């Protein structure tokens, strides 16, 4: 997320998880790997770099789900816009990627974007804009 007119924090998984994600909360099912891992596609990141790291579901997770949760972001307003751009790869027809928003005052997670059933075997990019009058996690 970034403030309008200020710099954008970039996250590439090269050394660890992003500052935006809970450092200690790489939930079971997610692994940090690169295209040389021998685990099948993708064989590179979205820039075509086979040694660059990305997060991937482990092969054992085919039939279930795994969550990535961000740290807490501050409320948004006209001066403080939150936009998150991410690259994703879906290699299963049955796979679904969901982005959810959880306000700190609520127990429920509201789905704000999702994609499924696109067996494209290519990286795609998406940008979501988030509006929240209170602190939240994605």
Automatic annotation (TrEMBL):
Gene Ontology cellular component list: membrane
PROSITE patterns attached to this UniProt entry: MAM_2 (PS50060)
Lineage top rank: taxon: Eukaryota
Name of the protein in question: MAM and LDL-receptor class A domain-containing protein 1
Pfam families in the record: MAM (PF00629)
Location of the MAM domain: 9-138
Upper lineage: Eukaryota, Metazoa, Chordata, Craniata, Vertebrata
């Amino acid at each position: 997320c970034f403030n309008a007119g200020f710099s954008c924090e970039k996250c590439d998984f090269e050394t660890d998880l992003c500052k935006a994600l809970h450092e200690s909360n790489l939930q079971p099912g997610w692994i940090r790997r690169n295209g040389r891992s021998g685990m099948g596609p993708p064989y590179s990141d979205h820039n075509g770099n086979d040694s660059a790291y990305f997060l991937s579901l482990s092969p054992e997770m085919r039939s279930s789900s795994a969550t990535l949760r961000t740290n807490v972001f501050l409320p948004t307003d006209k001066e403080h816009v939150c936009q998150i751009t991410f690259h994703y790869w879906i290699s299963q027809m049955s796979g679904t990627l969901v982005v959810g928003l959880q306000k700190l005052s609520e127990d429920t997670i509201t789905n704000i974007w999702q994609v499924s059933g696109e067996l494209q075997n290519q990286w795609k990019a998406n940008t979501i804009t988030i509006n929240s009058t209170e602190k939240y996690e994605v």
